[in-house]
Amino acid sequence: MPDSNRTSIRARVREQAEGPGGLCELVREPVLGQELPVFKNRKRSLRELLEETAGREGVEYLVEGDRRITYPEHVRLVASVAAALRDEYGIGKGDRVAILAANCAAWPIAFWATVSLGGIVAALNGMWTADEIAYGVTDSAPKLLIGDRKRLAQAAGTSIDVPTLEIESEFARLESYAPDASLPDVPIAEDDPATILYTSGTTGRPKGAVGTHRGLIGFVDGTKATATVNFLVDMETGDADPAAAANRPQTVALAASPMFHLSGLYATIVLQLAFGGKLVIRPGRFDPGEVLKLIERERITLFSALGAMGPRVAEHPDLLKRDLSSVTNVGFGGAPASPAIQERMRKAFPNASQNLGIGYGSSETVAVVASFTGRDYLENPEATGYVAVGMEVQIRDDEGREVPPGTEGRIFVRSAWSMLEYWGKPDATAETIGADRFLDTGDIGRVAEDGLVYINARARDMILRNAENIYPVEIEYRLDKHPRVRESAVYGVEHEQWGQEVKAVVVPEPGEAPSPEELGAWCGETLAAYKVPTAWEIRTEPLPRNPAGKVLKNVLQGAPANVVDE
């Protein structure tokens, strides 16, 4: 728990920052039929955000292999590609451009060019099967599909009927199409759609969450506001060094998250551009050894350890052979990180040991709902942060009634930045967003008295055993602390007498073979008897995960491996 003095300081600092004349001043304005708080001083479109980067002479934005692109050069490339998209493919306001590719420099350039035209980027999952690609293209109905050779070949056998552009052989032509072009000047409204990110559960087809220009700008401004509040609190408590902050070098971020995912698009492509950071892109599948080489060579300062990425890097035999001193920030997201995983990352990156952070959000919320870093995270490793500036969070029971602080329930979120809708799915939209614009996240959690948010489980993951509610994450955290366990996943399986029983899937550390009896006794030391798993699976293969790093429990339960559970 944070000390009461720090909590009161945070409340006062935040009130001052959000108030009239504050560094993060909020005002209330009509947004999609509701009066909602928005930042008074804000950009009105992503193109406006991009335009201000043209003056960053000599500052690199994108690095891919030997190719290094400065901010001014990036703006020129975007303007040229936008002109080609407009002249050759007829892309205009509201038109969709689908991107189906592994991480590469062409991905962000195509993104910025499309949204600068007022178009909408449909970010297609690069891990989809041919059938899923065909569905995504049909659903988003793009005027153009931009893809890499491998994924376009995979889609070639489908019934897709849309013009395509192969990145390897054709994108360079767009980059040189109009070298003296200016950025487009088509009017863009704040609530115009900018992105379609596909998210899905264990059943049904994926749904396209539509992010607006307002939403993505809100992602940026909300992150800045949170950083500002945190810094002011640390200043008052003596945890910040103003001189070090003033001389902080350019952030160098490893673009490891897939760019079709919010962590790769919103939190990497958009956020680093807004902050003046550099993105180092490594194409291909995640390889911890190659990542370590890249961290050393490019002096990476920010590493996002989503899902299994962090542990795979931390446990690689080359860890101690590489100079990792440049890494001063390690971030988690996509799913809660157990205290055991946090400790592994602190040991792997000692210069970031006091600056780990975590954020909670989704394709539907667009902007970050809650986050924290540094001392607060260190002292509260099972929380996911304080509610972000401009965000409103309610915890509701099964009847939709708001519950008191500290009580668990379904998490509802409201802000000016949430998704506009699920693309072409009004019924699904109505089920998720109420008339008051409160969005049902589908997550279960609580907001403590001190304002910290705790995410306990996806609603569908909750186990009901003999009428007792059991949240898997609590058991997973305990198992992950076992010295012989690398990772674990817990879910419910049907039981004739109990309704459900608790099953644990455990991946031991290499060379280890803990028994179910040993692990059960370990759990029983800190957990109630009804929470201790009674069904066990000890496996050597890594747990299946989606691109955001979340464990695919539906795959563990027998669903096809290509079904993505967001």
What can you see in these coordinates?
The two termini are 30 Å apart. The chain is of the alpha/beta class and 566 residues long. Residues 562-566 have low confidence and may be disordered. Helix 3 (71-89) packs across helix 4 (106-116). A six-stranded mixed beta sheet has the order 8-7-5-6-9-10, sandwiched between helices. The relative contact order is 0.10. The chain is globular and about 70 Å long. It has a domain at 465-556: GMP Synthetase, Chain A, domain 3 (2-Layer Sandwich), CATH 3.30.300.30. It is built from 18 helices and 26 strands. Helix content is 33%, strand content 23%.
Can you say what the CATH homologous superfamily of the domain at 465-556 is? Answer: ANL, C-terminal domain
- Please list the strands of the largest sheet in the order they lie side by side: 8-7-5-6-9-10
Oligomeric form: single chain
Rounded mean pLDDT score: 92
The share of residues in helices is: 25-40%
User: Count of DSSP E strands?
Assistant: 26
Q: Return the CATH architecture of the domain at 465-556.
A: 2-Layer Sandwich
Work out the helix count.
18
Instruction: Report the biggest beta sheet as strand number plus sense, adding barrel if it closes.
Output: 6 strands, mixed
Task: Name the overall outline.
Answer: globular
CATH fold descriptor of the domain at 465-556: GMP Synthetase, Chain A, domain 3
Radius of gyration: 23 Å
Distance between the termini: 30 Å
Uncertain stretches of 5 or more adjacent residues: 562-566
CATH class of the domain at 465-556: Alpha Beta
Task: Please indicate the percent range of residues in DSSP E strands (runs of 2 or more).
Answer: 15-25%
State the secondary-structure class: alpha/beta
